[in-house]
């Protein structure tokens, strides 16, 4: 872009900006005018007509040109000064030339103004002097940037209408950042812009929709409302705002807060509706939530309007680093100073931190730092006193095993983010601004680099703002606090915790920081009920898994004992310990004596359990190879983790770490993996889990990796770990497979020992569940005669009661395949007694089994055939199946199986004699019955099919000696009974006479 014809008259810059031509667009020139005052742009106009909160490129180009090339911009006095130097003729000449140059635009205005000037009582003549747009503002005027209010409204409205998608959420956050920047520059537009944003937020049509439906808003949206509320707290806490400004903000905030659609502080509209779990008889929460005042996202800002900065102690804290108590005061107890004489600020912690945030936000960073240090001195003193109190109560508390909670309002997840505020204030001072740490926008932003800056007046020389930042983050994270109510508030605790941890991970731990870390960790372990890592905690306190995982990793290389101590202490999740009694929470709102029914209201329980699992996994990985540590971690897992799928995940993790691809396995960790796997098996045995098959297979793999003794052990104690089906079809089958024997390179006695265990298991399972395990048991016992006989006997005993025909047929076929035809015949006969095939079941899956059983009997000889035919006649009413059997039996002579000691006579069997006569009679009567059944409901489209069926019947009738006579009689009968079906009977006559 190029800038031309630039003029600077007083406080008014004007010029033309040319955009060069592109391949698709011609060259364009825009006229730009900018007014400014005390280094701030106060108004802009540009011919491009682009409307945005941010200035268009042409305004930026003109401004940069003026800044970078001041010598090329001719500077003139304000126009009023120039006019003052002209005489009457010159003034007349100027006006006439001006009108001539722009007569179409200016003439009407000039005429109107001339009329007013000539009229003695016009408004224009009541005012002394005339305006000068180039003269700048008076010294008393407000100091503020140009802000296009319509544009702000328009943009916020547009971003909100996009439903808080990633892009629009980012845009709104950048507008909030813009407000913070304005506050820091002490530009009075900051509050104005925030007001405009808030008006649009309150006008969001989704608010009333969410309220009507009682549904919560999206998380992205909630976070934007939170930021809005926090920003208002900053605005009203401006230490130098005028009281009338504060009063007008208070009115405005109250007005918004009273609107029905105003979002509530704890998250959702849902909390105004009775919660289903709140309605439980043993809970007094439902009445309680009605008694509590309605708190909206603006409530904290409204309360902050009552705060002032006039306190002389506060003024001294923020105005000097060297403020200390006089020496004579240090002897006694003082509420204003600690024993070292350093000032304290005893405000409610989140409120005190809101003051720090306000100071920082309004550009008073040194003052903010001083107040932050006073707050930390106060927290330290309180921590020390709390430890002293605990020492006196310790014995009593440990005996009871219950504690009350003193901190009802946790600092982590708090709407004002007190810990984040203190941490940022302190670390900002220590940040090294070196170009290499700048975010270049390429790839991952580099973590900030910090150095130690000593704190004035600290008793030990080794204290810096950086060690204070670490200390306060640890104090806040370690604070014992009640799990807040509602999904959003709980989710926020998790999110805030993760944010603080990620900031802590950016600190490179040197000796000074490690010292702070160790000292504070020890204090948290010994602080009793004031710490979430104390020995006894309340059943509903927020778990410390995420925090402890950070502490463990940070301490491990410096003090492993302390690292394990803190991680093991944090493994608990008391809300899931059904035996734990609920302690007194020391406040009517939380004084809930609850049967373990409250934790359904722990909406983030799944996330918390997975964090607990992460902590355990981190410890397992670190303890690899250390038998004692692994034992302790294993016990903690078994005691504290209640979810089988998470324990399974840990077992798999341990197995992976224990069996690296390129190194030998770590047997200590493998044993832990196996032990966890066994626990999962026991936990899910009766509650059958959908992942059971995968878990069982995995366990066998793990036991194989541990070795032969582990396999023997799981085979011997199978009934506490597996169902009979799993034990035979997966466990024993895998243990006996060729792969396992190769993997373990077993010698003959070892293989025999394993096989013997597998057979014992197989027989026990077959006894317990013959239906599902008999076949597996026979297969597993094949190589041992006695075991095989025992398994076969189990099947025979169970056949009459516990087994279905399909199971028996399957085993019978297996027996035939293994070369036991007589046993196979016996089982097939037993199966036949369980079967019943009706006349119309001619596609039943058991038909193949029946045909196979008859073929087997026929191949064994006349006696076996004679034994099975009565069973077939009794079980099968289906004519086509019976005629199929009959046809097959008359095609070859019986007894082809060649059983030693039996001779095949080679004669075909006659259908007139037993046993086939009985089968023939049954088949004929089945055809007769089926014919009558079919004719009662026959439709014309099935006539052709029916005639074919009768032809098949005739073939069977003709196998009897007097068959043709019987068939003729049968046909005559049909014609007589069904003479009403004329067309059908005509077809019968045509085919059969």
What would your notes on this structure say?
- Residues 807-984 form the ZSWIM4-8 C-terminal domain.
- Keywords: Metal-binding, Zinc, Zinc-finger.
- By secondary structure, this protein is mostly helical.
- Among the domains are: 11-103, no CATH class; 821-893 and 909-992, no CATH class.
- Helix content is 58%, strand content 4%.
- It has 41 helices and 5 strands.
- Strands 4-3-2-1-5 form a 5-stranded mixed beta sheet, covered by helices on one side.
- Strand 3 and strand 4 form a beta hairpin.
- Helix 3 packs across helix 4 (103-118).
- The protein is elongated and about 150 Å long.
Describe what is shown at a glance.
Residues 807-984 form the ZSWIM4-8 C-terminal domain. This protein has 41 helices and 5 strands. The protein has 993 residues and is mostly helical.
């Amino acid at each position: 872009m190029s800038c031309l014809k630039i003029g600077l008259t007083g406080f008014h810059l004007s010029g033309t900006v040319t955009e060069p031509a592109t391949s698709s667009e011609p060259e364009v020139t825009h006229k730009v005018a900018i007014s400014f005052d005390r280094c701030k742009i106060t108004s802009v106009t540009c011919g491009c007509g682009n409307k945005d909160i941010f200035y268009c490129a042409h305004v930026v180009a003109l401004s940069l040109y003026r800044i970078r090339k001041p010598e090329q911009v001719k500077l003139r006095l304000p126009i009023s000064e120039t006019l003052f130097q002209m005489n009457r003729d010159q003034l007349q000449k100027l006006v006439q030339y001006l009108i001539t140059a722009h007569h179409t635009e200016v003439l009407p205005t000039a005429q109107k103004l001339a009329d007013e000037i000539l009229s003695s009582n016009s408004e224009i003549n009541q005012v002394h002097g005339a305006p000068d747009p180039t003269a700048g503002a008076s010294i008393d005027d407000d100091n503020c940037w140009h802000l296009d209010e319509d544009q702000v409204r328009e943009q916020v409205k547009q971003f909100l209408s996009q439903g808080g998608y990633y892009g629009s959420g980012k845009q709104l956050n950048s507008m909030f950042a813009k407000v913070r920047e304005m506050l820091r520059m002490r530009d009075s537009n900051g509050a104005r812009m925030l007001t405009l944003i808030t008006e649009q937020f309150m006008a969001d049509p989704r608010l009333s929709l969410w309220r009507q439906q009682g549904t919560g808003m999206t998380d992205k949206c909630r976070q934007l409302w939170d930021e809005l509320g926090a920003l208002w707290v900053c605005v009203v806490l401006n230490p130098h705002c005028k009281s009338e400004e504060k009063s007008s903000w208070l009115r405005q905030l109250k007005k918004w807060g009273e609107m029905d659609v105003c979002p509530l502080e704890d998250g959702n509209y849902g909390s105004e509706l009775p919660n289903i779990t709140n309605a439980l008889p043993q809970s007094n929460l439902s009445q309680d939530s009605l008694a509590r005042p309605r708190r909206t996202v603006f409530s904290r800002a409204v309360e902050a309007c009552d705060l002032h900065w006039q306190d002389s102690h506060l003024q001294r804290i923020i105005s000097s680093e060297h403020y200390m108590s006089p020496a004579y005061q240090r002897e006694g107890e003082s509420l204003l100073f600690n024993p070292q004489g350093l000032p304290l600020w005893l405000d409610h912690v989140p409120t005190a931190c809101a003051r720090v945030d306000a100071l920082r936000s309004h550009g008073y960073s040194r003052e903010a730092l001083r107040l932050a240090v006073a707050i930390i001195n106060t927290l330290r003193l309180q921590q020390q006193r709390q430890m002293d109190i605990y020492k006196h109560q310790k014995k009593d508390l440990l005996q009871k095993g219950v504690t009350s909670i003193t901190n009802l309002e946790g600092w982590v997840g708090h709407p004002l983010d007190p810990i984040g505020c203190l941490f940022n204030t302190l670390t900002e001072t220590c940040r090294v601004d070196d170009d290499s740490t700048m975010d270049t926008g390429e790839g991952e932003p580099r973590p900030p680099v910090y150095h130690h800056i000593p704190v004035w007046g600290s008793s030990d020389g080794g204290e810096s703002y950086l060690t204070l930042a670490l200390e306060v983050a640890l104090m806040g994270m370690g604070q014992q606090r009640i799990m807040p109510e509602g999904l959003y508030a709980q989710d926020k605790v998790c999110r805030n915790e993760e944010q603080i941890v990620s900031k802590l991970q950016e600190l490179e731990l040197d000796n000074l920081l490690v010292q702070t870390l160790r000292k504070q960790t020890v204090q948290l372990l010994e602080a009793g009920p004031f710490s979430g890592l104390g020995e006894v905690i309340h059943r509903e306190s927020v778990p410390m898994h995420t925090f402890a995982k950070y502490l463990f990793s940070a301490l491990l290389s410096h003090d492993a004992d302390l690292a394990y101590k803190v991680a093991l202490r944090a493994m608990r999740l008391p809300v899931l310990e059904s035996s734990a009694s609920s302690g007194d929470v020391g406040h009517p709102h939380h004084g809930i004596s609850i049967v373990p029914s409250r934790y359904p209201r722990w909406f983030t329980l799944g996330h918390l359990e997975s964090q607990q699992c992460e902590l355990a996994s981190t410890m397992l990985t670190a303890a690899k190879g250390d038998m004692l540590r692994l034992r302790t971690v294993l016990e903690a897992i078994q005691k504290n983790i209640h979810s089988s799928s998470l324990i399974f995940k840990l077992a798999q993790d341990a197995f992976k770490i224990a069996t690296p691809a390129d190194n030998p396995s770590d047997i200590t960790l493998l044993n832990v993996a196996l032990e966890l796997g066994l626990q999962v098996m026991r936990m899910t045995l009766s509650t059958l889990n959908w992942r059971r098959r995968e878990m069982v297979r995995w366990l066998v793999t793990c036991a194989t990796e541990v070795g032969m003794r582990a396999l023997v052990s799981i085979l011997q104690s199978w009934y506490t770990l597996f169902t009979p089906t799993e034990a035979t079809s997966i466990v024993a089958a895998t243990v006996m497979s060729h792969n396992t024997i190769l993997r373990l390179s077993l010698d003959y006695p070892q293989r025999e020992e394993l096989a013997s265990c597998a057979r014992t298991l197989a027989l026990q399972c077959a006894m317990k569940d013959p239906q599902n395990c008999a076949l597996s048991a026979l297969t597993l016992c094949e190589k041992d005669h006695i075991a095989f006989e025992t398994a076969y006997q189990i099947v025979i005993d169970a056949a009459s009661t516990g087994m279905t025909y399909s199971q028996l047929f399957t085993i019978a076929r297996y027996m035939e395949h293994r070369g036991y035809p007589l046993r196979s015949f016996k089982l097939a006969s037993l199966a036949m007694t369980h079967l019943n095939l009706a006349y119309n079941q001619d596609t039943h899956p058991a038909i193949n089994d029946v045909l196979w059983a008859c073929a087997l009997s026929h191949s064994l000889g006349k006696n076996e055939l004679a034994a099975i035919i009565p069973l077939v006649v009794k079980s099968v009413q289906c004519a086509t199946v019976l005629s199929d059997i009959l046809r097959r039996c008359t095609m070859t002579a019986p007894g082809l199986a060649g059983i030693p000691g039996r001779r095949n006579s080679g004669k075909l069997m006659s259908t007139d004699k037993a046993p086939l006569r009985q089968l023939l009679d049954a088949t004929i009567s089945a055809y007769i019955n089926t014919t009558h059944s079919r004719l009662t409901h026959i439709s014309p489209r099935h006539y052709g099919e029916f005639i074919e069926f009768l032809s098949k019947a005739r073939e069977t009738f003709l196998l009897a000696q007097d068959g043709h006579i019987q068939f003729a009689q049968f046909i005559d009968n049909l014609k007589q009974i069904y003479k009403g079906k004329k067309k059908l009977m005509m077809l019968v006559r045509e085919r059969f006479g």
